[in-house]
Amino acid sequence: MAAVVNIRRDVKDKFYRYKMPVLLTKIEGKGNGIKTVFPNMADVARALNRPASYPTKFFGCELGAQATFNDDTERYIVNGAHDQERMRELLDSFINKFVLCSSCKNPETELLVSRDDWITADCKACGHRGDVENKHKLCTFIVKNPPKKASKKGKKGAAGADSIAGQPGQVDGADGEDDDDQDELSRKINEGAQALLSEEQAAKLIAQREADEDWGEDTSAEAVARRMAALGVGASLLADEDDDEGDKYSAFAATVTSDMSNADIYTGAQDVSTKSYKVLVPLVPALFSDDIVAQLPTRLALLAKMTSNEKDQKALLGGFERFFASHPDLITPTVVGKVLLQLFEADIVAEDVLLHWSTHVSSKYAPKDVSKKVRKAADPFVEWLKTAESDSEEDE
């Protein structure tokens, strides 16, 4: 079990009531696949009353490295080998910028995101409400992934006296939070679908919607209609987007030209949707032509800016599948391998995502035969990734 320290490490008072576990690090992998894992990041984040993805993403921003996280498995990773003390210093910086009250310096704060995407910290100790460092790159991620609201059961701040007295670093009321942010479908069910569905039907519908996110699931309009009919649900209940929503993203992609700057494309994409994964699939084929290997380096900064989480990375790979569907002559180990290698070395797509993608053929983004061919062409690159990982395990 990790030792416990003061949340403000500059405070030496051993009776200081705001505590957290010492951040632990573990180096895994070898060569290009080396990474730093944080085994107890979830516990540290609970003590700070922040999602664990926030400090992990903060580390990635500060180090210029790809950060990946999975709240279900509580696995949080930053690519590259990083010194433990350096990571603890970065955690102190995160606490100072995004946890401590700017007035009383207590960590009893909650982050609030306004409608104009401005982030403030509301202090429950002194009542002060002040701005965080909104110019930091992390703020873009926070706006896209706002903190969950506390339940109505009287959830106390993670850093508050009641939440840590006797059990430093543990959070009362954590069980009251949902595992994932509610999507539009969940909100519609909570707001009014109970009148149309039984509780059992609603649970099945939500479970099915979550299952649809899997790459191997058929998400065509016909398949969705079949699942809706099986549940006895009308199409209007699932209409969380306008009928022409998909056309909106394709229409934007059609306006993209080779001479447009990355900044202009990013701004246009944000105007269409702040959810990058919706824009990336039609955008990628519009960005590249037959000379994709030479063109890709000029767009890596744009793709890195638009991939802040695993869902974005999956959509990005789906976009490249769609590109290869329209350029079948380029589906070769050389071209596909060079594309994936650039994405991996630029820390745009994580190793875990690439390995998962390589084993899950899907017709979600391109015809299934194209999906198979692209993954087959990627085999040499994937084997290289696996070899680096296995070599590391043998050394250990």
Automatic annotation (TrEMBL):
<dbReference type="InterPro" id="IPR016024">
    <property type="entry name" value="ARM-type_fold"/>
</dbReference>
<dbReference type="Pfam" id="PF01873">
    <property type="entry name" value="eIF-5_eIF-2B"/>
</dbReference>
<keyword id="KW-0342">GTP-binding</keyword>
<feature type="region of interest" description="Disordered">
    <location>
        <begin position="147"/>
        <end position="184"/>
    </location>
</feature>
<keyword id="KW-0547">Nucleotide-binding</keyword>
<feature type="compositionally biased region" description="Acidic residues">
    <location>
        <begin position="174"/>
        <end position="183"/>
    </location>
</feature>
<dbReference type="InterPro" id="IPR016189">
    <property type="entry name" value="Transl_init_fac_IF2/IF5_N"/>
</dbReference>
<comment type="similarity">
    <text>Belongs to the eIF-2-beta/eIF-5 family.</text>
</comment>
<dbReference type="GO" id="GO:0071074">
    <property type="term" value="F:eukaryotic initiation factor eIF2 binding"/>
</dbReference>
<dbReference type="GO" id="GO:0005092">
    <property type="term" value="F:GDP-dissociation inhibitor activity"/>
</dbReference>
<dbReference type="InterPro" id="IPR002735">
    <property type="entry name" value="Transl_init_fac_IF2/IF5_dom"/>
</dbReference>
<protein>
    <submittedName>
        <fullName>Domain found in IF2B/IF5-domain-containing protein</fullName>
    </submittedName>
</protein>
<feature type="domain" description="W2">
    <location>
        <begin position="242"/>
        <end position="395"/>
    </location>
</feature>
<dbReference type="Pfam" id="PF02020">
    <property type="entry name" value="W2"/>
</dbReference>
<keyword id="KW-0648">Protein biosynthesis</keyword>
<dbReference type="GO" id="GO:0003743">
    <property type="term" value="F:translation initiation factor activity"/>
</dbReference>
<dbReference type="InterPro" id="IPR045196">
    <property type="entry name" value="IF2/IF5"/>
</dbReference>
<keyword id="KW-0396">Initiation factor</keyword>
<feature type="compositionally biased region" description="Basic residues">
    <location>
        <begin position="147"/>
        <end position="156"/>
    </location>
</feature>
<dbReference type="GO" id="GO:0005829">
    <property type="term" value="C:cytosol"/>
</dbReference>
<dbReference type="GO" id="GO:0005525">
    <property type="term" value="F:GTP binding"/>
</dbReference>
<dbReference type="InterPro" id="IPR016190">
    <property type="entry name" value="Transl_init_fac_IF2/IF5_Zn-bd"/>
</dbReference>
<dbReference type="GO" id="GO:0001732">
    <property type="term" value="P:formation of cytoplasmic translation initiation complex"/>
</dbReference>
<dbReference type="InterPro" id="IPR003307">
    <property type="entry name" value="W2_domain"/>
</dbReference>
